[in-house]
Structures are given as structure tokens and as C-alpha cells.
Amino acid sequence: LVDLQGTIRNYLRASLFRKYLNYDERSRSIVRASTMQSAIMVDVQEASESYIFAVKLCRIVGRLFIVMAFTYHKNPGALNILILMPSLMMIWVLLRGASFRRACEQESDMQ
């Protein structure tokens, strides 16, 4: 299997480091090396994880759309349900999202 997250992480790290090497002396004096190291090691990891999450989310939404289109094609009378189902899913995500974020923050505080 292709390690997409690893490939993205390596690409972003190389691009960020290359950008830093292309700075002129004045720009390098403004940006501390420790800040750049943190960006390359931590921020790039978070960015690649976020990208993978976005890709997975798009895949889920795409599957949901395909199921809805198939259902509508086979049963046009189910349009009310097809509108109600994603609406209820979004309400559930919005209600649960806040409590999930709080739980994650509490867990990270304990570590």
C-alpha cells in the first residue's frame, strides 16, 4: 500500500526546509532555527494528519452521496428521507463534536 501520509509529510518537510534555505540573511536572522525545526517536525506532522482526515471525510461524503443518488434513482418517493437523513447526521455531528473536543482536550491536559 502507498503510505500517503508519509509521502505528504516528507514532501512538506522537504519543501519547508528548501524554503528556509532560500531565505536571505536578514530573513534567517528573523526566523529562529528552533522555530523552523518545530515547524518541520511537529507542524508538518499535524498538517499531513489533517490532510489525510480531509481525504477520508471526502470519501465518506462521496459514499453518502452515491447511496443517496442510488436510492433516489430507485425510489423517487424517498426524497423526504434523503433530505432528512443527512440533516440528522449533521445535527448529531454538531452536538457530539463539542463534547468530543472537550474530552480530547481533557485527555491532552492529563498527558
- What is the helical fraction, as a range of percent? over 70%
The strand count comes to 0
**Strand-and-helix sequence, N→C?**
HHHH
**How large is the share of residues in beta strands?**
under 5%
Given as residue ranges, the uncertain stretches (5+ residues, pLDDT < 50) are: none
Please give the alpha-carbon distance between the first and last residues: 33 Å
Largest sheet: none
Q: What structural class do helix, strand and pairing data support?
A: mainly alpha
Radius of gyration: 22 Å
Large-scale geometry:
elongated
- Average pLDDT: 89
Count of alpha/pi helices: 4
Name some characteristics of this structure:
111 residues, 4 helices, elongated
How does the SSE layout of this entry go?
Layout: H1 4-21, H2 25-30, H3 33-74, H4 79-110
Helix pairs in contact: 1-3
Task: Please describe what this structure looks like.
The chain has 4 helices and no strands. It is mainly alpha-helical and 111 residues long. The longest helix is centred in the middle third of the chain and has 42 residues, at 33-74. It is elongated and about 65 Å long.
Q: In summary, what is this structure?
A:
The protein is built from 4 helices and no strands. With 111 residues, it is an all-alpha fold.
